[in-house]
Design goal:
By secondary structure, the chain is an alpha/beta fold. The protein folds into 3 domains: 144 residues, PAS domain (Beta-Lactamase, 2-Layer Sandwich), CATH 3.30.450.20; 156 residues, Alpha-Beta Plaits (2-Layer Sandwich); 240 residues, TIM Barrel (Alpha-Beta Barrel). The chain has 23 helices and 21 strands. The strands form 4 sheets. The protein has an 8-stranded mixed β-barrel with strand order 13-14-16-17-18-19-20-21, surrounded by 4 helices. It has a 5-stranded antiparallel beta sheet with strand order 2-1-5-4-3. It has a 5-stranded mixed beta sheet with strand order 7-8-6-11-12, sandwiched between helices. A hairpin with a 2-residue loop joins β7 and β8. α18 packs parallel to α19. The longest helix has 20 residues. The chain is elongated and about 135 Å long. The chain starts with a helix and ends with a helix. The structure holds ligand C2E and magnesium ion (2 copies). One magnesium ion (MG) binds next to loops. The site of ligand C2E has 24 residues, from β14, α15, α16 and β18.
Length: 583
């Protein structure tokens, strides 16, 4: 920051070295005042401007407004600077610059306000008639930088697209809303809303249309009288409502909110229909920590999204417990493979006609040191979410192939493979490697998949499945009837076997509808030349009925529960012994 003191010293020393005399000539000072980038004013004790730089004239006067020289500072400078100038004269301490301070200049035309930083120094001028005090005022234009700063501050607290608050600002607002006993007593409701099918608008119409939806959504929330709206993620908003509503009031508020959000959106000639889900909680349930309130409302939102037909949900402690359980499990899972806590059990698959063992399905088990045996329904989803299914699935495939290949009787093996494995690793190579290292022939292996696998990336999956079939490996469609099952597309899927889910088998023989569905699947499978396996057969009646319907293979507790590799080998040799004794 240049100031006039340094400037003057520099001029003096330059002049002295050139001429050997003490005072710089007037035209040299004028050149410097002309060329300087700062506003420089030299002011005498009466408040008159003795010298002014070109920039000072430009900043303080209208274009063509002449010069400041000769004017009184009270006419051209803001009150704040004038006061500083007076103070500096009154203290009379030369060569002590005032601290840099900001001031607003009403420059040139009205409304053209500039923010400047300025500094004032006292000097003694000796122009022949004895030393007299003058002050030098240096100021420079900071308007752009300051406005940029304001812009930055806005961006830090707001979403630039919709004008909604940012997450961090929301947290501050919640803190402020709950500051003090009385406000805490009043409490607040935290709501998190998520737009569904928003991505479809983005994908189908483009991001500019998506932006329009978001802006309109925020305006609709504001129009509903909600002051605090924050944007948390692409199409996720948080809102707060102060006070303590009754359960019924909270629910009707959610309903009205959703009604507003789902009204058709008009987007420059297009109409978009968007869905919305809301999760909410209250300080009474979740306490006063903004982060916890948000987390709980978000959990409630996930619950609302997961329950079909319900588009809003209130946070319950149960949701938190379940999440914690899942998080704990994810941590434990990490060590489970290294520590050898996984085992594989094998469940027999029987030919319904002859009662012979035709294969086994490998089912993973986790022997948790504290929880005991954990069922796959609990840990598979957690392993899928954390990506640990890759390691686990690879281990199951390899170990099961090795176990089954080592048994003294040749039988088929079915291994479950998760869609995540298909997404993240080359399942075909893994299968090939497992077959090679175990020596199990490819035609004795089935890979079980679920319909979910075709939901994303269907082309890529179909190709991988086809390559597995080319190796000689069979593909079985697991849990048929529970997913998006459509009989109409069955013929197009590259699968060899269909496993009818146990929920249909369970209601046999009494349930006519389940019977009709199974019969339809049987008929179609026969036409399509696919083998049907019935899962979950628990009694002889079910086994008989399925056989009558034409089902060839059955699996279930009626024939055998999943057991270890060693037990399986023993069970089989016992069966062989029994049969040879009977024969
Ligand atoms: P799934 O592939 O449909 O496996 C059949 C499930 O039905 C097994 O449950 C089995 O124990 C059970 N089950 C068999 N017979 C009966 C019966 O008569 N009655 C009843 N009520 N249940 C019966 P499990 O072992 O708990 O496995 C659950 C699911 O976990 C499996 O369903 C499969 O989708 C998944 N899973 C198991 N192991 C693995 C694995 O290694 N990798 C992958 N990706 N998923 C696995
Ligand atoms: Mg299975
Ligand atoms: Mg199944």
């Amino acid at each position: 920051m240049p100031n006039i003191r340094q400037l003057r010293t520099a001029i003096r020393s330059a002049w002295r070295s050139m001429t050997g005399t003490g005072a710089a000539p007037r035209d040299l000072i004028e050149t410097i005042l002309e060329d300087n980038f700062d506003g420089l004013l030299v002011i005498d004790e009466s408040g008159q401007v003795l010298a002014a730089s070109r920039v000072a004239d430009e900043l303080l006067l209208r274009p063509g407004g002449g010069t400041l020289v000769g004017r009184r500072v009270g006419q051209v400078l803001p009150e704040k600077i004038v006061q500083t100038v007076e103070q500096v004269f009154s203290t009379g301490r030369p060569a002590e610059p005032t601290p840099t301070a900001p001031a607003t200049l009403h420059a040139g035309s009205p409304g053209n306000e500039l923010i400047v930083l300025y500094v004032v120094t006292l000097s003694r001028l000796d122009d022949g008639s004895g030393p007299r005090p003058v002050v030098c005022l240096t100021f420079w234009n900071e308007t752009e930088k300051r406005r940029g700063g304001e812009e930055l501050a806005y961006l830090a607290t707001h979403d630039p697209l919709t004008g909604a608050y940012s997450r961090s600002e929301l947290i501050k607002i919640v803190h402020a809303t709950l500051a003090g006993d009385r406000r805490r007593e009043a409490g607040l409701t935290m709501l998190v809303a998520d737009l569904s099918r928003f991505k479809t608008v983005n994908d189908a119409l483009g991001h500019s249309y998506g932006d329009m939806v978001l802006k309109q959504a925020v305006s609709r929330l504001r129009a509903a009288g909600i002051e605090t709206v924050a944007r948390l993620g692409s199409d996720v908003f948080a809102l707060i409502q102060p006070g303590r509503p009754s359960e019924a009031e909270a629910q009707s508020f959610c309903r009205s909110l959703i009604e507003r959000l789902v009204l058709p959106y008009t987007l420059a000639g297009h109409r978009a229909i968007i869905g919305a889900c809301v999760g909410f909680t209250h300080t009474d349930r979740s306490g006063y920590e903004p982060e916890v309130l948000l987390r709980h409302a978000d959990m409630a939102l996930s619950a609302a999204k997961a329950s079909p037909g319900n588009n809003f949900a209130r946070f319950t402690q149960h949701m938190d417990d379940r999440l914690k359980e899942k998080q704990d499990m994810e941590v434990d899972l990490r060590q489970a493979i290294e520590r050898g806590q996984f085992t594989i059990t094998y469940q027999p698959q029987m030919a319904l006609e002859s009662g012979e063992l035709v294969g086994v399905e490998a089912l993973a088990r986790w022997e948790h040191p504290v929880l005991g045996i954990v069922a796959p329904d609990k840990f598979i989803p957690a392993a899928e979410e954390t990506g640990q299914i890759i390691e686990l699935g690879g281990w199951v495939l390899e170990t099961a192939c090795r176990d089954v290949a080592s048994w003294p009787f040749p039988t088929r093996l079915a291994v479950n493979v998760s869609p995540i494995q298909f997404e993240l690793v080359d399942v075909v190579s893994e299968v090939r490697a497992a077959l090679r290292s175990s020596g199990l022939p490819a035609h004795r292996l089935d890979i079980e998949i679920t319909e979910g696998i075709f939901m994303s990336n269907a082309g890529f999956v179909t190709e991988a499945l086809q390559r597995l079939r080319d190796l000689g490996v069979g593909i079985a469609l697991d849990d048929f009837g529970t997913g998006y099952s459509s009989l109409s597309y069955l013929g197009r899927l590259p699968v060899d076997k269909i496993k009818i889910d146990r929920s249909f088998v369970r209601s046999l023989p009494g349930d006519a509808e389940a019977g009709a569905i199974i019969r339809a699947v049987m008929t179609l499978s026969e036409t399509l030349n696919k083998v049907v396996i019935a899962e979950g057969i628990e009694n002889a009646d079910q086994a008989w009925m399925l056989r009558m319907m034409g089902c060839r293979i059955g699996q279930g507790y009626h024939f055998g529960r999943p057991r270890s590799s060693a037990e399986m080998a023993r069970w089989f040799s016992d069966a062989v012994t029994r049969r040879s004794l009977a024969g």
